[in-house]
Amino acid sequence: MTDNVSDATSHTGIDDPVAVRLAKREDLLANGPDPYIRRFDVTEHVADIERRYTGLEPGVSTEDVVRVAGRIMAMRDQGKALFIVVRDATGDLQLFARINVLGDRSFGFAKTLDVGDWLGAEGVVMRTRRGQLSVAPTSITLLTKSVRPLPEKFHGLADKETRYRQRYVDLVANPEVRSAFIARSKVVSAVRHCLGDEGFMEVETPMLHPMQGGATAKPFITHHNALDHDFYLRIAPELYLKRLLVGGFERVFELGRNFRNEGMDQSHNPEFTTVEAYQAYTDLDGMKELCQNVFRAAAMAACGTLDITYGGQEVHLGGA
Fold first, then answer.
1. CB within 8 Å of 279: residues ≥ 6 apart
2. Which residues have C-beta within 8 Å of that of residue 125, sequence separation ≥ 6?
3. How many domains does the chain have?
4. Is 15 helix (H, G, I), strand (E, B) or coil?
5. Could you tell me the residue range of the domain that residue 84 belongs to?
6. Most buried residue, 13, 33, 63, 133, by CB count within 10 Å?
């Protein structure tokens, strides 16, 4: 914290929360500290702290200094103590800020922060008497001032239209959604590694096709100015992948986007990701075996087991 902190809280008479935040932002830009810090070196994530200090007893404070950062999700003012819950990519952590540690100016500035602001803190790891694992900050840094309030935390974000059109808001309001993004990333990585281990070469084929093919679907049409010719966003990579087999490659695959200008709902998107693999010198049974291996690799990466539950049904991917 710098010392040139003016009173950013004196915005009485303003009922609009966005206007209040904008006023605070303008005050910070004019008088400091900078509300948009370019760099803050994080040494620990929440999950790392929880794992390392799982056995720390209530009321015990360590001498281990950490630097954490995240979005403010909740604040509770207890006079000379301030409890701030910050959320990073791995979870939530409480900051136990005290006026006798931070000093009057830094503590007063901390009270002007809003839920939704991005915050960096340096301090020691401790566990409160009530058993809450916390960091007791010796310094607090505003990393980014948020000018819009988060969705009401008690109700979350329930409107499906907003959730799917503004996924970043959905991720903030419904943290359980994050697990789907993480699982997808693991699945994509596992598919790539599995096919690579099977001897398949990953390729990238054209997205713009002079003619539609590879599937029956209505395409998106665009115009190439230099060639003065209409092209189609691909509906499938099939034809180009098969040409690679004609050219002599024996095992190829592509994991990428396709585009189909058709219906759209919660389970159908006009742009979507597929994996297509082609292998010479095999038959249907060989491709079935390949698919089994891919599904097993994906399940292990995302779930850690071959016994999964989907749609209320128990599915065993281990084979007979």
1. 200, 250, 251, 286, 287, 290
2. 49, 53, 56, 61, 62, 64, 66, 133, 134, 135
3. 2
4. coil
5. 17-144
6. 133
What is the token pair recorded at 268? 């159908």
Instruction: Tell me which residue of 222, 223, 219, 235 sits closest to 276, measured CA to CA.
Output: 235
**Which pair of tokens denotes residue 154?**
């008690």
Query: Span 184-192, mean pLDDT?
Result: 97
CA 194, CA 295: separation in Å to the nearest integer? 9
User: What are the strands, taking DSSP E only, across 117-262?
Assistant: 118-127, 133-144, 201-202, 208-209, 221-224, 229-233, 251-259
Q: Which residue type does 229 have?
A: H
Q: Among 86, 116, 144, which residue terminates a domain? A: 144
Looking at the fold, whether 279 and 191 belong to one and the same domain comes out as: yes
pLDDT digits (tens, 9 = 90+) for 55-107: 999 999 999 999 999 999 999 999 999 999 999 999 999 999 999 999 999 99
